[in-house]
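Sequence only, no structure available. Ideas?
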Amino acid sequence: MSDVNDLATLLEIKQWLSISNNVNTSIAAAIAPGTQTVTPASMANIVPGYLLTVDIGAAQEEVQVLTTTGTTFTAAFANSHLTLPIPVTAAATDAVLARLITSSSYYLLAKMSRTTFNPVLNYNEVRNGNGGQRMALRFWPVTAVNSVTVDGISVPKSPDGVQAGWSSDGVSVFLIGSFNIGFPRFAPGASPGLFRSGFQNVQFNYNYNPPVLPPDVVQACVELVSLKQVVGRQKIGLKSEALTGIGTNSYITGAVPDSVQAVIDKYKIRYLFE
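Reply:
I predicted one. Tokens follow.
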């Protein structure tokens, strides 16, 4: 089941991981507990990181493919598998991946100080006045500003971007002209129009509608899910792994890869004048 704020789809994740649900094969030799390399009748759609259901009945278990060759795969088996042939099918990974997509999406949104990337037709934003003539809106691009209120007083829209009132460039709202002290109305020769400093005293009601998810945001979610799926299950807490006769593999020890962090930094909403 997908969530309205998911930043990637199951199909995108499976394509990135080269995962297909079409695994239906068998193993002709018995398998002992432990990390074993086995030879199935077919290696179709069996790739590193993929989850397989091995055997039936009491011996059935789910294993993750660690490595593959053209004819074999290696996995850690907890059970003995003695009844031949041993059936091997795709594990029910959709639910796991869907959960990872949703959790990764909310993680990314939180790091970007956003609640969603999906279209929201209307948003009511209450802010602290910054004492200036311009305030950036939290979500963009803005398709329509419906109302601007400061200190409980409705500010009229400037009819032409020159006369007194508010105007918007699709990212921020700014005040034009001047108004009387106490903000009853805009009037020539009065104090400059400002979003008076205060607590939760400015309110914007507007529509915004991002046309599509930015491709780099989708890719960041795909990479984060892939990291959790392929690396997380076997390498939790592991900084490096020595491979006899080969060398040492190192794993990402930070919260996210640098490529994902770069996307977070790019789209993070920063409140400079709260």
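The radius of gyration is 28 Å.
Hope that gets you unstuck.
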